[in-house]
């Protein structure tokens, strides 16, 4: 495994330890995982449905969970930024039936689901951390569902920008006021359930209101509290909360 893969594992081990209370043994078990660094061009498909028994740790770029529909239509059901584990559901046997593709040129570490499940079985604290990670991802999915069902285009886009700003800030990739969102308007349209033209017009509306400015892939937010109010954004769903006692420490 290349050095960049080891570095990615070190970062995710540190994050899981800080957020979910892992000890030295659990961190070492994560660092001992063996994976393959994969480089994919933008708009590439790296898995097909449930036939791939791998999960992916995003190192650089953006991965997307995509559900293909009849007639060439699709819905993007998840976005994964650097530091995210894409495919945790597969590691515990849940099959979502979607494909994984790239939102831009992307670097990821491919890991065996069975290997990850093995350390989760050996170390209950790791299982606890991955369960909490999966719960956060499920919370994001639920919030997107609310947006698709009940928010108008302006609020929907503003909410997504707030979310992605916080998620990228947490990885050290910019701040909520200034970040790079490596997603085309076509990809954003498939996230938001809109057309690319509608996404473009909505960006123009947000710019006219002084809420958000898109300069290519760079998003600038002049007044983040105003954008959050316009989006009706509350970011609690992005956090698992204080590290409660895991099964390994609650005895």
Map the helices and strands.
Blueprint: H1 3-20, H2 24-31, E1 35-40, E2 54-60, E3 63-68, E4 74-80, E5 85-86, H3 88-91, E6 99-102, E7 106-112, H4 113-122, H5 124-150, H6 153-170, E8 178-180, H7 185-192, H8 196-208, E9 213-215, E10 218-220, H9 224-231
Could you walk me through the main structural features you see in this protein, from its secondary elements to its overall organization?
- This protein is of the alpha+beta class and 251 residues long.
- Helix content is 45%, strand content 19%.
- The chain is built from 9 helices and 10 strands.
- The strands form 3 sheets. The chain has a 4-stranded antiparallel beta sheet. Strands 4-3-6 form a 3-stranded antiparallel beta sheet. A 3-stranded antiparallel beta sheet has the order 8-10-9.
- β9 and β10 form a beta hairpin.
- α6 (153-170) crosses α8 (196-208).
- The radius of gyration is 18 Å and the shape is globular.
- The mean pLDDT is 91.
